[in-house]
């Protein structure tokens, strides 16, 4: 995610890039199997998110949206594995459930809270057993809120289900935590004049009377907040990048003609940006790329898996950021929300890398200029925030993005460009389609560089003060007196 506000500050200083390199093997033991799925307890930032005891494997979502009534109705079948013996389990859903079955048998259900759907199957489920739960539900998502968020984004002509950290409960029941990833089939029924865009690959579009049902499939595991659909009047362009990656782009026809033309022209850069990132970071992790520009008044862009969504204020740096998230955030997802700087700091760094590679200032000049301009204010929140545990209210703080990128830029100075390239390429290959944490990233950097980096990471991530300008911290320009 990146908001419109970030376009003004430190990012205008722009920065350089990495070089491709070889990767080293990381043992499978470093892979995270999933916080919620493994029953290790709730995420402290949002304890109601996700549900211990079940591991989601696949969601088959079938929804219909009525623009006039602002009403969504749906039927979601989730294939799950029990991670312990279950007499009952929960799913995250804000809409009203009307029917639930488990393995084809009606189950008891109730809303234990606005956010939680508690399900009691007719027969207890044994640990390790794979079962299928089907939930029918309906309601007006625009009326619903959770954790201070009203995430539904729609008007009389267009709807886009985009938000972070919470979006899924407004339109399908799930284990709503990034540690419990699953594959998806998403079917959306809307007026036949509308086009429907979602994650992955479009399988079919079937017209029946005044309605059309569009089927999209996401074959790679995906976090729940990255699942999306958009329905509206869209101009569609599709094809392949120079490297052969399929792309599918959509721009709202509701935008003014000049804005629409400009947005479509910018969105065409998706293919070349994806190819460039692949050359930097290693194989693109999914089967398709692309993007969608909405006419709705949205103040942020979001890295929906394979198909980021943007407002009309789309630009090249923003696209690099969201497309970099396909590696950092989508393929390699956080273990818990406290690890968010790994997503945002790395995606912001890739903006700077791309800018340098295309004639912009170097990463090092950006790093040192940013350091000199901020280091004089020792009590600034920008430096006080603990990036390894920013708190639920601060996961999108500017420090998470900008200081996060500074960490990577300084790390390059500390261990060298070649080793940093190996770290990033190994990170995304070792944790492909999985989850990872900040301690794992720190350990990988030490393993590849052969250097002790505890002091470096403590200074940049956790110290709560301006890092000293020393070679050990990757800074060579002193703070002005």
TrEMBL record:
This enzyme's EC code(s): 3.4.11.2
CDD domains with a match to the protein in the record: M1_APN_like (cd09603)
Catalytic activity: Release of an N-terminal amino acid, Xaa-|-Yaa- from a peptide, amide or arylamide. Xaa is preferably Ala, but may be most amino acids including Pro (slow action). When a terminal hydrophobic residue is followed by a prolyl residue, the two may be released as an intact Xaa-Pro dipeptide
Keyword Hydrolase: yes
GO MF entry, a single one: metallopeptidase activity
Superkingdom as given in the UniProt entry: Bacteria
Domain Aminopeptidase N-like N-terminal: 57-226
Signal peptide: 1-25
InterPro entries, alphabetized: Aminopeptidase_N-like_N, Aminopeptidase_N-like_N_sf, Peptidase_M1, Peptidase_M1_aminopeptidases, Peptidase_M1_dom, Peptidase_M4/M1_CTD_sf
Matching SUPFAM superfamilies: Leukotriene A4 hydrolase N-terminal domain (SSF63737), Metalloproteases ('zincins'), catalytic domain (SSF55486)
One record GO biological process: proteolysis
Keywords associated with the record: Hydrolase, Metal-binding, Metalloprotease, Protease, Signal, Zinc
Domain (Peptidase M1 membrane alanine aminopeptidase): residue spans on this chain: 316-460
Cofactors that this protein relies on: Zn(2+)
Assigned protein family: Belongs to the peptidase M1 family.
Protein name stated in the entry: Aminopeptidase N
Source organism: Nocardioides faecalis
